[in-house]
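Target protein
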Amino acid sequence: MSLSESRLTRFIVHVTLAVLLLITLFPIALMIVNSLKPSAEIVQNPLSFPSDLRWDNFVRAWSDANFGRTLANSALLTGLTILLVCSTGSLTAYVLARRKIRTWKILTFYLLASTTAPIQLFLFPLYFGFARFGLINNPVAVAFIYTAVYSPFAIMLLRTYFLAVPKELEEAALIDGASHWQVFARVFLPIVSPGILTVALIIGLYSWNEFLIATTFLQGQDQLTAVVSFFLLSGQYSSDWGVIMAAALIIVLPIVILFVLLQRRFIDGMAGGSVKG
């Protein structure tokens, strides 16, 4: 390839990446602009800059959606889900990757089917069962539902990380007298930690934004998650779009900040998981 062709290729790549970046950031930029405008200006022209900055939209959104409480509920539910999925998923993935499972094809089919099956199929039986045992409005119980829903994906992804670890490391640790638990905890976990972080970020994003299960099983005002309280901001006949945009920004901001801080490890983890399947 000549120098001119190389420069042209680089230019096309950079332009394409710039366009994709613009498409990705445009909704967030539009949300920020409209969160500082009164509702009338948003209805008139959502693409215009605010004539007068309305910082009180954030104050009203915080109080009207009770974000002080609902954000804490979302953080608790998300943290419990991440802990349960990563702990159980890593143990299961380790066994499936390092042991010969005769029924692996059946397990693969089951995991794939569990990943693609819609939660609506199980919603009514789950609700009646949880109601019978008094588990409605119980964040821990909802975290177990999330764990059951997200674990198949986590297991399939984490298994690729365990497969990428050389067998010689496991054999050497066993020869030195380590138990299987010690091999898992002291040899494998430090190596596959980028994969666990990747799973934690993905599962955390899913749990933070989940609406259907949260609104079904957490009905008390003190148990609402941030996403559900955001949905309740919209009135039946009228909506203050400035407050709604401010509330949406409050919900999105923690996820964006977390991803920006951990993006390098997240990308490294996704690349590491694709080495061997």
